[in-house]
Amino acid sequence: MTHARPSARQFAAVALALGAIATANARRPPPPSAPEFSGVQFVFTSDSHYGITRPEFRGGRNVSAAVVNAALVRRMNQLPVSSFPRDGGLRSTMSVGAIDFVVDTGDIVNREESLPDPVQPAAVSWTQFRADYLQTLRLKNHDGGVAPVFVVPGNHEASNAVGFYKPMNPALDLTPMVEMYNAMIKPGTPKTTSTFDFARDKVYFSRNVGGLHLVFVQVWPDSHARAWIENDLKSVSASTPVFLFTHDQPDVEAKHLINPNGRHDINPTDQFENLLTDTFADGKTIEESSVIEQRQLASFLARHRNITAYFHGNSNWNQFYDWIGPDSRIVLPTFRVDSPMKGAESMLNERKLSFQVVTVNTDTRVMTVRECLWNADPGRPDAPLAWGGSTTVALQPRPVAGAARGTGHGGTDALQRNADLIRGGITRGRITAWRH
Fold it and tell me: Rounded to whole angstroms, how far apart are CA atoms 153 and 176?
């Protein structure tokens, strides 16, 4: 087939048309770029449990916590070049970018029990944690500096320091408590395992980061910790969002309080662990609910409505929920995180191993918390990070609860408090794509 050669006039017409298109494109404004992020991002994990093994991990059996946590840290290092999912939350579909800090809320080391399988000394476990989280983790903050790692002791670190009702070897190992105290409190004279006093030297501290006030307390905010927080908040504006990081869930376990029986000691009959400063006031056994202690915490939170988020581990799976207290008098957005070693769901299905990535816009006072599934494809450890549930919360002073509906975990499910966040402006409330 032959084609007629275009004439000069046709060439001129095409050139004119192309010129017109180019001129129109030059006048058209460029597509809007993503607005500069004004806020804070951090990673939240808990219950690393160095010293024990998990049944299965990436084809192996009885895999040590050192191996699992090292893999977790490698995945955290991939965050900056990963992208958020299309979930409607803050910075949806955008590159994750900078991480301002990392939080681990305790049980970093396992209790060094002798039976049935001996657990390595806590000092050895702490050395492994340091190698992973303090030396291998390479996340950078928005200023280009190394993202700090904030840690608080959980019940396992505390039991290693005060003793337990089952045999441990060694009987006491204060190393992790001392290391956390020195790193987080930064005393003029660092503590040693011989000068550290568990009853006196508490790991309570706070930090101001990007318009947020972060409060960290060991194990659970008992009366002693609440007095410290009360004093700490005297210098914090009532309009500043305050995040509380601790180990136990708000409905504290009875066994972590002081034994109310006999000599108030740690013994295999009563099985109280004596990790907090308050004596259990609700009964005589660890099976009873800590209603009085929860009521005291709820009363404290009602006086400090700018405490707008509570982050915890201890009983581990991914959950976003509202803690309403035993009398349904408050509404506190609460975030429970998975454990790489003891997750209620991820122990049975390693694809559900997760940590949380938190994005806060400090201008609009909005926060998105996302579940990052870091082992969604065990056969491909370098596959792109996967994402699970997410929730977006307005960080206004918390409302006083009305007739809130409870759940089996002492709070309202995030799905029950939807709406108003986007249409008509951002108000108190939550919009969620949620799952455990």
Answer: 8
